[in-house]
Design brief:
It comes from Companilactobacillus nuruki. By secondary structure, the protein is α+β, with helices and mostly antiparallel strands. It contains six helices and 14 strands. About 15% of the residues lie in helices and about 45% in strands.
Length: about 240
């Protein structure tokens, strides 16, 4: 029986900041910990969204690809889906949706949100794959490709982390999107939900897995970085 109360996280957002972008877990291994998730590939190779056990990558050209088992990631979240209905929404912005969800749950634990419906004025991004020597997260993010749709049907998959975990994850919401036609998606920058069904899955356990076999990570000194400031700049 699968454990649906645990959120698995490989790596931290903090390690991306100085450019520790080696892929340190395979997709095959990540999928052992969940059939649903998000992440990014080695060298920030696109934006990943896993739905129903299928790992989709939105690359920097806007293509949606299904990645193979040997695809590697420096950072990812995954869990086994067991969503419960929360609410239905209409004509609600990203900020309004985030606020509404928090008002209906707790901001002191991890949870995932899945919203399926029609989205308008949605803007997403993906970053082209970089190679060693890697640039910093901020520098790499400058080369991001931005995509937009006036109207599209699809699934918003999001994770929420309490503010006390900011740095390990994104404190607050981290949104990814995939269209029903599998021709649009990525890390979400902004959107409006024209109409949608909101589902929630709350976790009581975070399983944090660190890349202890990666020498660059194990020997890196993070003390000279404004980790939180750099994360918020890159994620916005």
């Amino acid at each position: 029986m699968t454990n649906t109360n645990t959120l698995y996280q490989h790596g931290t957002l903090a390690l991306l900041v100085p450019g520790l972008l080696d892929g340190t877990i395979t997709m095959q291994d990540l999928l052992k910990h969940g059939d649903t998730g998000i992440g990014t590939g080695e060298g920030l190779d696109g934006e990943l969204i896993i739905l129903d056990g299928i790992p989709y990558q939105v690359d920097s050209d806007g293509n949606v690809n299904i990645v193979k088992d040997d695809f590697t990631l420096p950072f990812a979240n995954s869990h086994f889906a067991n969503y419960q209905s929360l609410t239905n929404v209409e004509n609600i912005s990203q900020k309004e949706l985030d606020k509404k969800i928090i008002s209906m749950t707790s901001s002191n634990t991890f949870f995932s949100i899945k919203v399926h419906g029609t989205f308008t004025n949605i803007k997403t991004r993906a970053v082209p794959k970089s190679h060693k020597p890697y640039a910093t997260l901020g520098k790499t993010a400058e080369d991001q490709s931005v995509f937009s749709k006036d109207s599209v049907e699809g699934t918003l998959l999001s994770y929420y982390a309490p503010q006390i975990f900011d740095g390990a994850a994104v404190g607050g919401f981290h949104h990814h999107f995939l269209s029903d036609k599998h021709d649009f998606g990525g890390h979400v920058l902004s959107f409006t939900v024209e109409s949608g069904k909101v589902e929630i899955q709350q976790f009581d356990t975070l399983e944090q897995h660190l890349p202890t076999k990666n020498t660059d990570y194990m020997n890196y000194d993070f003390s000279d970085w404004d980790i939180l400031g750099e994360i918020h700049k890159a994620e916005s």
